[in-house]
Every structure is written in C-alpha cells, then in structure tokens.
Specification:
GO terms for molecular function: hydrolase activity. With 278 residues, the chain is α/β, with parallel strands linked by helices. The protein is built from nine helices and eight strands. Helices cover 43% and strands 17% of the residues.
Length: 278
C-alpha cells in the first residue's frame, strides 16, 4: 500500500529550489569575481604604469645598452666612472631622460651610473608593463653590467624614486646590491591606492603590488630613505613606516618637500647622501 505525502513533496520541492538558487548565486558570484579580477588587472596597470615621457636619452655622457632578456630588449643608459655602481630606477611617469638629473648627480659623486628603463616606457614602450616584467628587466640589466664591466655586488647601490623604490627593494631582496637609497618610497601599491582612492577595494583588485613593506623585514643591508612631509602623492608616513621596518635604515626628512623631491634637496642633504654611500 502506498501513501501520498503532500508535505514531503513540498519539502523536496523547496530543497530543489534552494539548491537551484544557491547554484545561481555561486555561478554569478564566480562571474562577478572573474570580472573584478580582469577589471582590476586592466585598471590597476593603467593607474600604476603611466609612461608619459619621451624616449630621448639623458643629456650627460653615456652609452645606451641593449640587453637581451627572454623575448625583450632591456634599454639601459650606462656611464662608467669608477668601480662603484649606482643603479637608478625612475618613477611611474618617468623615463631614462626624466631621471637624468639624479644620474648626473650620482655621476658627479664619482659613481658609474646605470639608468634602467621599464618595459612599456620610453624606448621599451612596445613591451608589456607588469611588476614581474619590470623586476625581470632590472635583474637582467644589473647582472649584465656586473658581469661584463666587473662590478661586484659589494660596490653596487640601488637607487629608486617613487615607483622605482619598489624595484630597488626587490633588487635588494634578490641580494644584487649592498646598499639602497629610496626617494619618496611607498609601503605597497595597494596602500597608495587605498590612500588616494578607495580604502578597501584596491587590496583585492591590484595585481602589481610592489609590496616593499612585506619585503623590508628580510632586508638587512643599509638603507637611506629621503621623504618630504608635504608629499601628497606618496605620503610621508609611508617612508617613515619603512624606515622603522627595515633592519638598518636612516631617514632624512624634508619638511617642505612635496613629491617633486629633488627640487628640495640641498647641498647639505646631498652631503648626507654622499656620506651614506661612501
């Protein structure tokens, strides 16, 4: 004998309906997450890598190196003055030409100077910009010059400005240099995006993180940080935070300096920088 149970059928129907709704929820959630990831990749890279300068070379004497790195050519401007090498990484709007002031200054201090271009910038504008590509090209340039021009790691200093500070930190983490100078550094790109735009969302969306603060705890080499208190592009507190996080760091505070930091560095400050790298 069989019995029909309307209540049982109703429960079954409700479970099926709930499962269907859960399936749709998961399906659209995955789609939304994927959309946000793609959006984050595209938008974050458009916000981070802002190549606006020309592909002209610095005006001071030097040689344009073209270094093969996988399927890319790394462009770097090299001046040989001594057995000490300063490797310079420019900011997000820059090129080899735009950072030439710093290159010339280091050259006058007696350093051999290597200015490294990023993929997607200047003469390398045909290549794709990404954090990994930038690191890879910087690594290739340093290794090429150290090997072919007989520079030791002990005589190599990494120098970064703004976006370039994250590149310098990665080169220090890879143990390619013995000292590091950071002008207007950030803790990480998501931190900068949170400061400038939306507090939480950038942490999820940004792929190219340049996470200097997380790497700082593993870096023991001497670090000099120069930061302006009136910097609204990369706030001063980020440089201060990094100076406390590195094992061996000094901080030079420029009270009136904004993000155009080199306009505010006096000869007194340059002497402190020179003393640090001696």
């Amino acid at each position: 004998m069989s019995f029909y149970s309307p209540r049982f059928s109703y429960i079954e129907l409700k479970l099926v309906n709930n499962n269907f709704l859960m399936y749709k929820f998961l399906k659209y959630s995955c789609f939304l997450f994927l959309l946000l990831e793609v959006f984050g990749c595209f938008v974050s890279r458009k916000l981070i890598f802002l190549a606006q300068g020309k592909d002209t070379l610095p005006s001071y004497s030097g040689t344009l190196l073209q270094i093969q790195n996988k399927d890319r050519i790394v462009y770097a401007y090299f001046t040989r003055n001594s057995s000490r090498l300063a490797v310079v990484f420019h900011g997000q709007h820059g090129t080899l030409q735009s950072i030439s002031y710093l290159g010339a200054k280091l050259s006058k201090m007696g350093f051999s100077v290597l200015l490294v271009e990023y993929p997607g910038y200047g003469k390398a504008k045909r290549y794709f910009s990404s954090e990994n590509n930038v690191y890879s090209d910087a690594d290739a340039a340093i290794n090429f010059v150290q090997k072919n021009f007989s520079f030791s790691k002990q005589n190599t200093v990494a120098v970064g400005y703004s976006l370039g500070t994250g590149v310098a930190v990665e080169m220090a983490r890879k143990n390619l240099v013995s000292k590091m100078i950071l002008f207007a550094p950030y803790t990480s790109i998501p931190d900068v995006a949170s400061y400038r735009y939306v507090p939480i969302l950038p942490q999820i969306l940004i792929w190219d993180r340049f996470n200097s603060i997380s790497k700082s705890k593993d870096i023991t080499l001497p670090v000099l940080i120069v930061h302006g208190k009136k910097d609204i592009a990369v706030p001063y507190y980020m440089g201060e935070t990094l100076s406390k996080s590195f094992f061996n760091a000094k901080l030079i505070t420029l009270s009136n300096a904004n993000h155009s930091i080199f306009e505010f560095i006096t000869e007194t400050h340059w002497k402190l920088i020179r003393d640090f790298v001696q």
